[in-house]
Design brief:
mainly beta
Amino acid sequence: MTEQKYIQQLLEACLMHQTIDSLHFWGPAYELSCDNSFYAEVKLTIEGAFELVQHGETTYVTPETSEKLVYLTTLARQKISSVQLVEPNDLVFEFVSGIKLRVVGNHGQFESWQLQARVDEEKVLVVAGPGERLSLFK
């Protein structure tokens, strides 16, 4: 199995049908977590740009966007219906409510997003970036 396919399976196992139950804002990074997940301590950290689609409108949000917190708070208590890793390292979520979130993987020389989870008592970390790189750490 390729690493890309393994990461896709990991994303689905950790995030599908889970509810975003907390949002944390630490400087330039934003964390969405699903503490009620079978995989304990699932956290997605967003450090780069993202696109939010709701009510037919698409909003592109960069780290410099002044109202970025307003957009992310719409995800609180949203249930994830699908998650997909799109080449090269974008992460796309669809929520039961119809909202879509695309986290842009290429953030230049910096990391764009990270997924941390505990799988079978082992911590796993997936990192997008720098550039189009996608890394898996166990």
